[in-house]
Each structure stands twice: as structure tokens, then as C-alpha cells.
Amino acid sequence: MKKFSIGIGRRDITPDIGGQLFGYGGRTLSKGVNDNLRATAVFFTDGATAALLISVEVCLIKNALADAVRKAVAEATGVDAQNVILAATHTHSGPNTAGMVGWGDYDETYCGKIFFPRIVEAAREAVRAPQPAVMGVGTVRSETGVNRRQIERDGRVVLGQNPWGVCDSTMTVLSFAAPDGKPLLNLAHYGAHPTSAFLHPFVSRDWPGVMLDILERETGAPAAFLQGTSGDTGPRIANNQTIGGDAYVREVGSLAGLDAMRAFRGIKTRLATSVKIVSGELALPLRERIPLQEAREKLARAKAGGRDEDYYGRVVKSYDETRGQECPRHLKLPQTLLALGDVVFVPFPFETFSEISLRLRAYSPFQHTLCVTDANGSNGYLPTQGEWARGGYEVEVARTEGVWPWVDDLDTQIIQGNLKLLETLKCTA
Length: 429
Hints:
There is one protein chain. This protein is an alpha/beta fold. The chain has two domains: about 5-280 and about 330-429, no CATH class; about 290-325. It is built from ten helices and 23 strands. Strand 4 (about 40-45) and strand 5 form a beta hairpin. It is globular. The N and C termini lie close together (about 10 Å).
């Protein structure tokens, strides 16, 4: 095994006050900054393989923007673009880096002035002077999150709390230190929406920020957050997510911080490890789009400026654009997995439901399989097959994400595709 080393780079990516906030309709402009946002780049190398894992404290990153950032990072650092994982923490109190119906396109001024260049600077710093390192892994059960697909008496699914719903409760902390024991970095992984600030009109990292501050204070090393499968999971707060604010951010973040420290203190050994990468392509099957006449009729009845008008408008337009052409049967999604010894990162450019993480981990050949949601782009929600039938907010958003809709068993298709890559990667690890 070659010498395992890591490098760390960090830049402030806080937007200007008065800029557009992304995450809730009806609360668009920031009135201040609760805590600064950061981009943290981590460079991993064992002398043979190099990779960058970049955590950015924003909600979502548009596919085209994520691709452009990864390409720019590759050009600036020499690390292959497919070996760059760009992961959003999913705070709902950050700038618009995604674009969506109701918000318009992403904030080009912010992205051009702050977001794009500072991520590249952080990555450049990370690769400049990597240090020999050893890695340890700690896991605990955390009650920070709870399934948020509340089922009403009449069977409707609303955003709230569902105490019997699926939730991935495993919190993982990866701790990196110099061979002499000096702390270098901690990575915390857990799945729950950072929405405890709710409509609070201030820029914030939300609860993960409080957790990271505790980790940094208690361990003496910088810390970054990787969002797990949070598509159907919210923060566990007493008010059932009907109000929010800084007090709730601190409440949830403190709970998460205590759990992260339990995981950290449970680490018994730290060892040098290997860096392995596998890349491939997931062919995700698509259903046929709705008939043109149906799309026209529904477009005529759709509310102006809403998601339905946008969706049915795109369907109608697609019939003109594809006349005489063969329609797509699959979405081809590039995929790269990064393994550090027996820890593997599986990026998902979706807001992924918790069951997917649990199923993938159960069949993965790696001891620690960390699904990283909102990574390398954004393609909306990824519900499990059983939840399509229940409907609800996440399912309705997923149904209107693309002109050619997802198949109902997309979760199984993605799990199977990733398991093949995991098995290939394990053979080389």
C-alpha cells in the first residue's frame, strides 16, 4: 500500500445580505447572516489514486453548474473530474444554486462571484500540501432525524413527522489524524433535512452547522458534513415543523453534536488506508410521457406560474422537439464511487429516501457504505417504490421532474446498478 495522505482546503461562500434564499416559497431575500457558509475540500491520495470530496453548505446544485465546477476543479488541481465528488449539505437557508419553478434559474451573480471561484480555491489549497494520515471510523444511533411523511387519518401524506416511518438512524464520523496523533479532519455523515430554521430569513448552515461547531471545538480539527438519505427525513423537533428559527437550529444541532462526539469517542483505532475509485454509468429506465392531448388539456387548466404549468408546458414542447425522433428509454447517469479502505462513498444526485440507504448498506460488500445525497447535481426526489402509491409532496415533485417520468421501481434499478459497481470496487480494494 502506498502512503495514505489527505489535504484540506476551506473557503467562505456566504452570500451577500439581501440575496435570494432557496428552500421555501414566500421567503426569498435574506435579512442577515446567522452563520457563515463554507466549502470544504478534502484531497485523498495513496500515491496511486487521487480524489477530491467537496462539501458545500448550500441546498442543491444544478446539474450543469455541478458539472462545470467539477471540470474547473479538475483543471485547477489535476485530479480527474470524475474523481471529484461535489456534495451539497442541503441547508434550506442558503443561496439559490439550483433553480426551480418559483425561484427561476440559479443566482448567476452569486455563483460567478463567490460560489464557483471559491470552491476551486478550496480544492487548489487541498491538493497543495497533503499530509500523511491515519483514519478511524465511529458509528452511533442518532435520533436527530425522523421520517417526515406524516400520514393523516384519511391517508393523505403531509410534511410533518411520522414516528413509525423509515429513517436511517446511523450517524458515522470519519476521523483523520497525523501518524503522531495530531487531529487533521472529521467528516460527519447523517441523513436529515436541514430545515429546523424553517422560514427564518437568515443565511444559516442550519443544524449541521451547530453539530460541526461542536465537533471542531471538542476535537481541535476542522469538520465537514455529508448529507445522507434525507429525502423523506426531517429534523426531530417538538413543534412538528410548523415554525422554526435559531432556537430550533441550536436544539437539533446540539443533539446531533452530542451524537457525533459519541461516535468520535468510540473510535478505537486509526490506520493508514487505500484510496480506490470506480466509475461507470447507470442506465435508469424511463416511462413513456403522457399523451399530447392530455398534456394540452391539463396545461390549459394549470395554475399560472406553478409546477403543473411548467411540467405540462415542457411535455407539450417535447412533442414538437422530438417529432420523427426515437424517444429516450433511459437516463444515462455517470457514477463514481470512492472507497477509503472499507468505507465507501456512494453519491446520489437526488434527494434520496432513507430505505435506499438501508437496502444498499445491507447488500454492500463494504463495512461502511455512506450514501451521499445531493451530490454531483440534482434530479429531484428519489422515492421508493412503495411510497409512489402514497403520493405526497415529494412524490408529486418527482412525478413532474422530467418529461419522461421515472419508473416506479427506480429505487431498485439504482440499488442494483450501484451494487455492481460496489462489487467491482471491492475486488480492487
